Amino acid sequence: MFIFITVLIDVLAFGVIIPVLPHLVQQFVGGDLSTAAYWTGLFSFTFALVQFFSAPIQGALSDRFGRRPVILLSCLGLGADFVFMALAPSLAWLFVGRLISAVTAASFTTANAYIADVSAPEQRAKSFGMIGAAFGLGFIVGPLIGGVLGDINHRLPFWFAACLSLLNFCYGLFVLPESLPPEKRCARFDWKHAKPLGGVQLLRENPRIWGLVAVVFIANFAHYVYPSTFVLFADAAYGWKEKQAGYVLALVGVLSVIVNVGLIGRVVKVLGERRALLLGLCCGVAGFLVYGLAPVGWLFLIGMPISALWAIAGPATQALITRQVPANAQGRIQGAMSGLVSLAGVVAPLVYTAAFGFFIGPHTPVHLPGIAFLIASALLAVAVFVAWRFTDPAHLSATPQPRAETAKVEPTA
């Protein structure tokens, strides 16, 4: 429950600044909207790039020193950084604050490892579904609170986010137990696997999860279509402005919570993790296909419940991966995957925005505002094939690989 609350508060803290960060940047650049858009895009690119470096380090640290200190330091660092951004006197200092938040925000890596530690293998998909519900709930409530507070003062959401993170740190200091006992930790900090691409070596030592990791990467690459193009797409395709787009995004969050809380555990119990994964990915393919081809807004809305079932795939994938990895490697595996997800966040927005701009521009052979969603649908179709190919019993087993390092007991002097 504490991990659920930690993730929820972290997502809330980030959600409340979503409506105001671009406007604060706009103030710093003299009110020019095009320049503000450029800087906002640069902020997103840099955030994902820094996460690519920091997530594997946090995962390796948690394997060596335990999950609790890493999570608590992350909460404390986030709170201090939001204070820093609330007080930032210039665009440069705000940019520095965004870099710091990218480092400290990698706590989601350790939260996933914590869940793998404390959940029985057959319960992990349901537990990861609860974390997905925390994301959905945070992105429903966070932007709404941020919008209200931002109308009062553009700095106020940053103070609110700081209070949330610091209260979370204080709560965890007295409540959160350690999930990884000393005898299951690595004997030393594994810098080889903590480097940005060092996790590739760890993945090579666990070849049975290659296909699943590829599914995670492709699915997250596809998911970036929402933050990259949705607001612009909604305006170009249906004439939806900020308010209507906000309502639709809130509905996406509501559907995500319903699926993660109410359906994932039941679906995985009935179908098993492999078939639940394939079902979720197929629903994502169909939902994005409807989004990309819908000529009117009400048809787009019909695709939302279908697309929401895609959320089943993520927890099922995580559960399958954690079954193949020993306890003292969970943090590094999660860190390696988080690094790959961050890499997707670096590249995906460039792909989607470029395609969207071309297919609504004057030189396009066909006017197709939904091209980004069609690309995402095609990517998920590839993920379906990869998941089907690499999750059959011949590639997976219930026993983790024995190659990961275990703690050694040194003789006393």
UniProtKB/TrEMBL annotation:
PROSITE patterns membership: MFS
Primary localization: membrane
Pfam families: MFS_1
Top-rank lineage group of the source organism: Bacteria
InterPro entries: MFS, MFS_dom, MFS_trans_sf, Tet-R_TetA/multi-R_MdtG-like
Keywords: Membrane, Transmembrane, Transmembrane helix, Transport
Subcellular location(s) per record: Membrane
Bilayer-crossing regions: 7-25, 37-57, 69-87, 93-116, 128-150, 156-176, 209-226, 246-264, 276-294, 300-321, 333-360, 366-388
Domain Major facilitator superfamily (MFS) profile, first and last residues per copy: 1-395
Keyword NAD: no
Membrane topology: Multi-pass membrane protein
Classification via PANTHER family: MAJOR FACILITATOR SUPERFAMILY (MFS) PROFILE DOMAIN-CONTAINING PROTEIN (PTHR23504:SF15), MAJOR FACILITATOR SUPERFAMILY DOMAIN-CONTAINING PROTEIN 10 (PTHR23504)
Protein name listed in UniProt: TCR/Tet family MFS transporter
